[in-house]
Design the sequence.
């Protein structure tokens, strides 16, 4: 069995400040962790593009005054673009 890209998000993912994100285009899901010094590690899993869009919208309001929310927005934006591209490629086949 092939290990999931999400098994080690920090090693396999893309970093945006305090946020790390992995995108499994085949499964169509995303794993996001937020690692802020002094706080407990936060891990989130998104199973659809709609969930990513909603999470991005929720963080966007805080991003103006919270650097962690800004990092999360950047990571979610990246993940959304990757998944959207994957979905479009599959639709063209």
Sequence:
């Amino acid at each position: 069995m092939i290990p999931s890209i999400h098994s080690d998000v920090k090693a396999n993912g893309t970093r945006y400040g305090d946020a790390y994100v992995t995108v499994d285009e085949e499964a169509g899901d995303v794993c996001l962790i937020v690692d802020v010094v002094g706080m407990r590690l936060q891990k989130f899993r998104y199973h659809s593009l709609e969930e990513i869009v909603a999470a991005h919208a929720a963080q966007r309001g805080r991003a103006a005054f919270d650097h962690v929310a800004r990092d999360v927005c950047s990571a979610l934006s990246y993940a959304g673009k990757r998944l959207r591209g994957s979905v479009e490629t599959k639709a063209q086949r």
In short: Residues 67-92 form the longest helix (26 residues). DSSP finds three helices and four strands in the chain. The chain has a mean pLDDT of 91. The CA atoms of residues 2 and 16 lie 26 Å apart.
